[in-house]
Amino acid sequence: MGDFFKSIRFKVFACLAALLLGFIIYAASTGGLAAVTSQLLGFIVTPVQKAASTVTDAVTDFFDQFIHAGDYRRENIQLKEQIADYQRQLVDYEKLKDENSRLRDIAGLHAENPDFSFLGAAVIGRDPDDQFGSFMIDQGQLHGVSVNDPVVTSAGVVGKIVEVGPTFSRVITLLHPDLRISCYEITTDEVGTVSGDPVLWADGLCKFQYLDLQTDIAVGNLVVTAGSTGVFPKGLVIGTVQEIQQENNGISASAVVMPSVEIMKVKDVFVITDFLGQGESLEDAVNQEEN
Amino acid sequence: MRQSTRRFLKWALYALLLFVFYILQSTPLFLSIQGIKPALIIPYLLAVAMFEGELAGCIYGIAGGFLWDIASGRLPGFSSLVLMILCIAAALMVMYLLRANLVNAMVFCGISVLLYFLLDYLFCYVMWGLDPARNVLLGRLLPVAGYTLVMMIPIYYFVRGLSRKLNENPRI
Description:
With 291 residues, chain A is α+β, with helices and mostly antiparallel strands. Chain A has helices at 2-6, 8-30, 32-67, 69-112, 282-290, and strands at residues 117-126, 135-137, 150-153, 156-164, 169-173, 180-185, 191-195, 206-212, 222-225, 237-246, 252-259, 268-274. The longest helix of chain B has 32 residues, at 135-166.
């Protein structure tokens, strides 16, 4: 080995080492040389490295499926449980949201009408054959619902109860010709009857009938319940007047009313199970006073 | 084929393989275990030096070190100098003192990776006070050194087979 240290080759190696040391010192002091060489090499190497990386990634991913299959399975089960949990939470959240919204409505209605007893209800079924929008709610006799109880939302009247089961009830709406509500227009105080109309229901409208032929009611006026029959309390909003028409009989007029509630889309309602004057019609009151 | 052409092709093939090992070493996820990857260049260069002599060790050591420095963003020349010295030392040991077998290759590789990573640690971390808790040394550099030592086995056999194929009269 001693020969090697005396050889020219050793001297060449030593020179190379010295050169490299010089190169290191120069690169450390300037930095420029390093940047240039790095960029030059990067220009050559990057495409090759990119391809190698793509291949490696593909191969790694392929084997990774088998190597970590157990982990993935466990993770999958965990995630599924997590999703189920979140879905349960989501259902609870939606329920709470609906309940909150319903309670807010009740609070608003109750503030305006302290004598009302409300019962929140959800629409649980609509008969597709019933064009007048009748529906079933999830509250019945056991909850205190009775036939003829008004059904409303915070926006106004929806309809009334026509049939009561133990845990459900059937509601006919403002669009139904069988429902007749004594109403008045708040600007002119003109009284009439709102009911469904076999022609207007298709547009979600109802009719305010038996108005004076020279009625002063104008388009946009508000129609509310009169509370004279003991079925609906006074002052519940029915809707706004859309059009005034002369009746075919020639002696009265009617108004087309757009209900304030979207009857066909309503999902949550309130049943007014009790209010001051429920079941007492104006006629009864007059007779009592006369007696 | 003429002797000079054959020699040129042999050197070109070693250079190409060095480039391939460099690409593989710097390819993300390649042979990665828990984020630890082997430094393939060191065993390859040592094996080439053992079977092709000190001149090959010197030239490929400088080239491989230079590639590695560029890839790692280290000061250019650091790895070149260290790897050149290690490769020449390995070649001389085989020429004058030891036989070229797997055990000796593993010993060379063990000493080389330990020296290389300790120097790297000294210049890149200790000098700048970057690793007071020795996290890099124990959690990164030593595992990489161990993994590299393991990789010496297949690389040794690969380079030995290649050298025997390429040399009509292998040096060893």
